[in-house]
Structures are given as C-alpha cells and as structure tokens.
Design brief:
- It is built from two helices and six strands, in the order ββαβαβββ.
- The chain is of the alpha/beta class and about 140 residues long.
- The chain has one domain: 3-Layer(bba) Sandwich (D-tyrosyl-trna(Tyr) Deacylase, Chain: A).
- Strands 1, 2, 3, 4, 5 and 6 form a six-stranded mixed sheet that branches.
- It is globular.
- About 25% of the residues are buried.
- The model has no long low-confidence stretch (mean pLDDT about 90).
- Pfam families: tRNA-Thr_ED.
- This is Threonyl-tRNA synthetase editing domain-containing protein.
- InterPro entries: DTD-like_sf, Threonyl-tRNA_syn_edit_dom_arc.
C-alpha cells in the first residue's frame, strides 16, 4: 500500500467515467475544504495483509491529522503509485475498512467514488507536513 497524503485548503472532484462498470456512470461533484486528502494505491500482495495494512494506514493518517489539526479526511483511489496493482474487489474492501476505522477514531471521512476516473483540483498548503509519502 502506498499513501500520498496532502494537507489541503480545498479538494474538488467530479466523476468522469466509471472504469469498473461502464453501464453505471453517475455524475458526482463535490468540494471538501480544510482536509487531508489521501491518494491510496493498493498493491497486489496487500489483499492478504488487509488487517495489518488498515491498522498501519489508520495510524499514519490519524497521526498526520493530529499534527495538522485536521478533522476531515478524503480517501481517493489512485492506482498510479506503483507498478503492482490489486484486483478491484479486494482494494475496495480495504478502502471501506479504512474509512470505517478512521470514522471510529473521530475523523469525518469520505471517499471519492471507487472505480471512477475523476477530474480533480487540489490546493495544498506549503509547509513540510502538507505533503507526506508512506509505503506500508
């Protein structure tokens, strides 16, 4: 699992195309302000390590939220951080488990629609903790 975490003023996205089910495209547009935006890549071997990875990712995101004073988190599937890619069903299960864990820790957590290609705009703060990379 790879995490690219951004401390943002604003994150805007709009669905472009459902890459998993082309017969089920939805038009969704949303803006989230003052949040951590987490680009997540699930690798092929991550499915078998789901429980441990969800805990480690939760710990990392929660740590960054405390350090930056953020209460909002956006999880975004971004399958461009590694050559290794998992199958979509297992990856989606990890995303849902991570979202549930973050909510249980008191973070207002949303997820961009899984399996969609999206347009997005992101305004990232300039400080050193505004851009954090983790390989779990």
């Amino acid at each position: 699992m790879k995490l690219l975490m951004f401390n943002t003023h604003e994150f805007w996205f709009r669905t472009f195309k459902n890459s998993l089910n082309e017969d089920n495209d939805e038009d969704i547009e949303k803006t989230v302000e003052n949040s951590l935006v987490i680009f997540i890549h699930i690798e092929e071997n991550d499915i078998e390590r789901k429980e441990r990875l969800v805990k480690k990712a939760t710990d990392n995101i929660t740590w960054l939220a405390k350090k930056t004073g953020r209460k909002r988190v956006v999880l975004h599937s971004f399958a461009h951080l590694s050559d290794s890619k998992s199958e979509s069903t297992g990856a989606q299960d990890i995303f849902l488990a991570l979202q549930e864990k973050l909510i249980s820790r008191g973070l207002d957590t949303t997820m961009t629609p899984f399996g969609y290609l999206n347009e997005f705009r992101i305004q990232v703060l300039g400080d050193s903790l505004a851009k954090v990379w983790k390989s779990l």
